[in-house]
Give the backbone structure.
Amino acid sequence: MTKKIVLPPQSDPPSDVEDIKRRSNYLRGTLVESLKDQMSSGISDDDNRLMKFHGSYLQDDRDLRNERQRQKLEPAYQFMVRVRAPGGVATSKQWLVMDELAHKYGNGTLRLTTRQAFQIHGILKWNMKKSIQEINKALMDTLAACGDVNRNVMCNPNPYQSKIHEQVYGWSRKLSNDLSPQTKAYHEIWLDGEKVVDNQDKEEEVEPLYGELYLPRKFKIGIAVPPNNDIDVFSQDLGFIAITKNDQLIGFNISVGGGMGMTHGDKETYPQLGRVIGFCTPDQLIDVAKKVITIQRDYGNRSVRKYARFKYTIDKRGLDWLINELNDRLGWELADAHDYKFDHNGDRYGWIKGSNDQWHFTLFIQNGRIKDSDEYPLMTGLREIAKVHTGEFRLTPNQNVMISNVSANKKEEIQKLIDKYQITAGEQYSALRRNSMACVAFPTCGLAMAEAERYLPSLIDKIELIIDEAGLNEEEIVIRMSGCPNGCSRPALAEIGFIGKGPGKYNMYLGGSFVGDRLSKLYKESIGEEEILSLLKPLLFQYAKEKEANERFGDFVIRTGHVKAVHSGLDFHD
């Protein structure tokens, strides 16, 4: 029998969210009743907190918010549903299901996230249950895609290291499965599963890993395969870096305490890089992950949510404390970390032949939004490819998609569809745009302070004029924009980063590393487009004129003294 988990006492009273979780009966709350309520297209705040654990957020169309207020109407409520895809892998059949649901219940578009998951926006409350049932029927799910649990496990989709990648992908799936919540609430609410009856004849329901309060905040895990750091392993609460020898996977270096979120004006919050603390063999991986999660479960801040991420748990007590605590819980000590090297964190576009003699085509999808326009029928083209493709689709951590494991016989057929629908690997775009990334922000994200997905492309249009004039069109520079300081697009790791401060205003950051192992630094606060361009122009021209051989832009602005190098979040605000 699994014992009920009792957390160590904390000195400060718990937050309101902790109370909601405690009263929820393992994430049930009153979701069933809220979903049946015909008087509103929304749900209560308490149930919305719980809905996240089921993979969805209640949102409203903020473009319509003021007008609906004037008309004394409730907000234009809708739900975003996030679908887990461990390692970003989906079959062609699953792709077609996502496409169908986006049109049947959503807003007619799909969004690929920075964590290799699908998002469908615009689902009305009346269609939520049908949507999630159809997702599960396709052997996918939304459980733990959001909420205070381990989120979608990321891994590196390297086609040219396919043997290693397949092993890493297998571990990402196992992590995702083993770290999922065990509550039966998901099946009861969405899939008409048998209800748990809590009486003397039935064993009391428990969460063997998380306990009834789950984690203090969200938890993110990713596995990187050097030399590519496309998952931004140091942004993860728990990162694993694959170590190979003679083309064999021998284990993983372990990185802890990464995280990109912060709060404007609060210097006690900051983005943080994960720190490597040791090495484990593949058969030790799950044990390490579970024990790390239990440490955060037991010691994470449950009083103030903005201080509750794992990075703050470690920084408050020290890295040595974490290592000792982990070794004690494991019953054995981590081995010393192995040498490794990252040389990039972007995607390799176009056709690439893998070591298994299969072909892989990576296409550029601006900010992860899959939709049709008069000029670019992207969604239709991918749908037609999915109908004939016998391999998989792999969502990349950079919001792009790889048509993966294409046989030589199928390659010509798929190429004809690529040509017919003008599907592009981004060769007509600048290297800057191909290395860009933005979060959703307006109109659906309730946390957004400024535009991101809808604005970054037009800002890049203007920066490209400077890039062209400076002769830097093929110079790869990582540029990212987030509509708020939560940092979902990981701008704190970008060479040029923008974090929304208010409508049309952004904090501008410089100096992140091209390989994702150094934080950027605040360069100018609360500026609009005109000032952004006026600041970037001399910097880019100086870079074109004075850069050293193979010197990246992020390294250049540090070498020339425009910003200081930041390797720790504790120095981020200094």
User: Anything to note?
Assistant: The longest strand covers residues 248-256. The CA atoms of residues 314 and 320 lie 9 Å apart. Confidence is low (pLDDT under 50) at residues 197-202. The radius of gyration is 23 Å.
